[in-house]
Amino acid sequence: MVDTDCWIEADWPVPKTVHAGTTTRHGGVSKPPYDAFNLALHVDDDPDDVIANRNQLSRILALPRQPVWLNQTHSTRVVNLDNCTDRPDADASFTRKNGVVCAVLTADCLPILLSDNHGTQVAAIHAGWRGLLNGIIEQTVSVFHGKHLLAWLGPGISQQAFEVGEEVRDAFMQYSNQCKSAFIAGRQGQWYADLYLLAELRLNACGVSDLTGGGFCTYAERERFYSYRRCSQTGRMATLIWIE
To answer: Could you read off the pLDDT of 105-153 as tens digits, one per residue?
Structure first.
């Protein structure tokens, strides 16, 4: 059993050959303000500390190989990792091969994991509001070959802490009037957006209704998670999935 201080195991009804979950900020060697288990090289942390953290992650989880880290740009690009070892520009990755580790880095954006019910195909998605709006979920679901899909929602920012402008709400409303339920009025011209609900609506529209996870808040849970909105100079958690 993995130390729960540094790892949250996904609790969802997938085959035992599928391993999945997310890290917390506990357990690594990074110094403030990245303390302590920062896994991102692009946030100005000491690269040696990040590499040490990544090596520690591999040991703790007994990973079959190093994760394939993405260069995330809030795009809708999904990359097939079956024949990829570089750091591709993408915001989601998937694999049908055993021992290939899909990973996304987040610190408020919503990490989403997908698996088919037989555990033969898996994917990891980095879903901020831009990615959700533009179709990162739909693009990722489209690469799966049939079969019943399940989703696990990792730690993201909660609605109470995620204030956005009128233009963001309007953009989602143009997609579907159902999105109205994902916004609560804040200050004049501002709205509080529910990333979890916006993701759920998109997943449901793709035929994915078996959802678990959620209920986290990266902003409020200061001791447990990194949050870019709370502190712009901060680390990133990793959300991983692989087939044994």
So the answer is: 999 999 999 999 999 999 999 999 999 999 999 999 999 998 899 999 9
Query: Whole-model pTM?
Result: 0.96
- What CATH number is given to the structural domain containing 97? 3.60.140.10
Using 50, 70 and 90 to split pLDDT, how confident is the model at 4? confident
pLDDT of residue 83: 82
Domain annotation covers residue 198: no
Tokens (6 digits) for 168: 């963001």
How far from 136 is each of 5, 131, 191, CA to CA, in Å? 30, 5, 22
Boundaries of domain holding 96: 7-157+207-243
CA 1 from centroid of its chain's CA atoms: 22
Task: Tell me the β-bridge partners of 149.
Answer: 116
**Taking a C-beta distance cutoff of 8 angstroms, is the pair 20, 14 a contact?**
yes
Q: Residue 68's beta-bridge partner residues?
A: 102
Is 192 contained in some domain? no
Q: Is residue 193 part of a domain?
A: no
The answer to whether residue 196 sits within a structural domain is no
Contact 163, 201 (CB under 8 A): no
User: Which residue, chain included where needed, has tokens 């195991």?
Assistant: 9
Closest CA to 148 of 213, 100, 203: 203
Domain count, the chain: 1
